[in-house]
Structure formats: structure tokens, C-alpha cells
Amino acid sequence: MDLKESCGSQGSQETSSLRPTSWQAFAHASTLHGLRYVFPYGQPSVRRLLWAAALLACLGLLALESAERLAYFLSYPHVTSVDAVVSSSLVFPAVTICNLNAYRFSRLTRNDLYHAGELMALVDVHLKIPQPHLAEPDVLASLQEKANFTKYKPTPFSMKEFIERVGHDLKEMILRQQSPPPAALPAAEGGGRRR
């Protein structure tokens, strides 16, 4: 024990008042902007009061706006607005079909099903068909045939090769309409070919 502390001298009181409180240490280490100025090391000042007022005002506005947005959300607002635009002609493609299947089932092999079947939700962890009642009968028959892994020896699997082979090919998905050659076009008004 220090002699100065036991005597209650002025030096020991000065060092204890300069030691930061836990709030000051927390505020100084906090990333909340302005909090370190509300609880600074040292004596209170006007600057500290202004920072406290600004911080409380911002927190109040945050609480007010959050409460207003929460009340609006809980009122279940809905807006249904439909604008119908009728067009006399459509630019190609007139019909767009989006294929949601990433892979072609017809190109799947038994090895693909063994390695990536669970990824595609075609088989479960035990390599069994999880919900056979949801599949169409012809697809189910093909899947059951491919999912028969008794006495099956899997071969090495490459995901890149799998995607290139089983994924959709753009050339097969786009149908191009070619215009007929000029000779095949119907004759203009006035009938027939010129001789």
C-alpha cells in the first residue's frame, strides 16, 4: 500500500479522477458516431452537452421513423395496379418460354444421378427416389431404372463436363423462322410471272 494513498493526499485523488470510467472506455471504443464525444475523458463541457443533444435527437428520430414504418407494415397495405397495353404487332419473339429446369432429364446417366442426383433433388441421401407419387409415370419409370444402384460401380465425375453435356443448348432451344426464297413467294397483283 502506497503511503500517499493511506494519507489521503491530493495526488492520489487526482489520479483516480483521471482514470476513465467503464462508460467512458465503452464510448471511446464504440463505433456509434458521436458517443465518444458524449462521454469524453476529462471534465464536462458545452461541447459534450451539444453532442449529447444531437445524439439523442438522432436516436429519437430513428425511433419515431421506425415506429411509423412498423405501424405501416402491420397495417398490411396493398396496391393493385394493372396497366393493359394492347399492341397491334409484336417484335420477335412473340412467345417466350422460360425453361426453369437447369438440366435435361433425357441426357442424365446413371453416373450423373449417382453423383449429382441429390443436388437436383431427384434422389435423397440414401439414393432413393424421395417422392415417387409426384412424378409422371414415364418419367418415374426412367428414373427408377437409372436409380437402380445395386452392383453399380461409379466412375469419376466432372461437374464441368456434366453441365456441358446435360445443360440446355441454346442452338436447340431457339427456332429460327427463315423467309422463303423469292421464287416461292406468291405473285404480285396483276398475276403470274412476267415473260
Q: Which keywords apply here?
A:
disordered C terminus, about 0% strand, mainly alpha, 9 helices, acid-sensing ion channel 1 fold, about 200 residues, single chain
- Count of helical segments? 9
Low confidence ranges: 189-195
What does the main sheet amount to? Answer: none
* Backbone shape: elongated
CATH C-level class of the domain at 105-173 is Mainly Alpha
Helix percent band: 40-55%
GO molecular function, one term: ligand-gated sodium channel activity
Keywords: Ion channel, Ion transport, Membrane, Sodium, Sodium channel, Sodium transport, Transmembrane, Transmembrane helix, Transport
Pfam families: ASC (PF00858)
Transmembrane segments: 46-64, 84-103
Description:
This protein is mainly alpha-helical. Helices cover 43% and strands 0% of the residues. It contains nine helices and no strands. The chain has helices at residues 3-7, 10-18, 22-29, 35-38, 46-74, 110-116, 137-146, 159-166, 170-173. The radius of gyration is 38 Å and the shape is elongated. The protein starts with a helix and ends in a 22-residue tail after the last helix.
Short description:
One of its GO terms (molecular function) is ligand-gated sodium channel activity. The protein is mainly α.
Strand and helix layout:
Blueprint: H1 3-7, H2 10-18, H3 22-29, H4 35-38, H5 46-74, H6 110-116, H7 137-146, H8 159-166, H9 170-173
